[in-house]
Amino acid sequence: MPDSDNAAAPSQSAKPLQNAMRRTFLRIGLGASIFPITGASCSNTESARLNWTPQQTEGPFYPAHQQADKDVDLTIIQGHTQRAAGEIIHVRGRVLDTNGNPIANAFVEIWQANKWGRYIHHRDPSNAPLDINFQGWGQTNTDANGHYGFKTIIPGAYPAGPGWTRPPHIHFKASGENYYPVTTQMYFPDEELNKEDRILLNLSAADRNMVIAKRQPATQAEPVFIFDIVLRRAG
């Protein structure tokens, strides 16, 4: 099936992927816990500075229509009694500047495929099942210490073209006042499909490390993945 995801957007250390085929693509309490800066790598010139998160393709499945419920809990839709199918996870992290300082009130949104690898989007040609109980899109703002968090499910993989299956991933957009916005994708650690994904492999090794989330040691029943985002100040 041809991939509708186009070439990956350029990052500071990688050129865009050419001729990509088919598609890319809790309300939780953050409490007072401090999330580690896990995703950012230091630049070669200034060891104290962080590289900004690499840009990746938005894909054609950014939500096309407004929906009443796009809060931080994607596993339950307001007014529904049944939760989404799939393994429930928590995605948490911080939005930081290149000096490692937290960015308060940064806007963060995510969208993703459901358990079976299908998006809630009219352009998704997949024959995989829709999940009427999966929200698929969430938005939030960071707190005073730059923290954000979502409750969701692990998205399914899906065929993206001959010899290419996209690994599970979550799309992110993040922006802050006086910072350049970033659109990227979060990948899961230890996924075999990561090793062959043409969009992920288009990044340098350092940038790949930044977009692969870190799984926290088990402290609760539902897995927690940490994904920090680094924005570059505008001007």
- CATH fold-type name: Protocatechuate 3,4-Dioxygenase, subunit A
Structural class assignment = mainly beta
Strand-residue fraction? 15-25%
Number of helices: 2
What can be said about the biggest beta sheet? 5 strands, mixed
Question: Which CATH top level class fits?
Answer: Mainly Beta
Distance between the termini: 42 Å
Q: What's the helical proportion of residues?
A: under 10%
Beta strand count:
11
Could you give me the name of the CATH homologous superfamily? Aromatic compound dioxygenase
User: Gyration radius, to the nearest Å?
Assistant: 17 Å
Round the mean pLDDT to the nearest integer and report it: 83
Low-confidence stretches: 1-47
Tally of domains: 1
Shape: globular
CATH architecture classification name: Sandwich
Order of helices and strands: EEEEEEEEHHEEE
Q: What order do the helices and strands come in, and which of them pair?
A:
Layout: E1 88-97, E2 107-111, E3 137-141, E4 147-153, E5 158-161, E6 164-166, E7 169-175, E8 182-187, H1 198-201, H2 205-211, E9 214-215, E10 224-226, E11 229-231
Parallel strand pairs: 1-10, 1-11
Antiparallel strand pairs: 1-4, 2-3, 2-7, 5-6, 7-8, 9-10
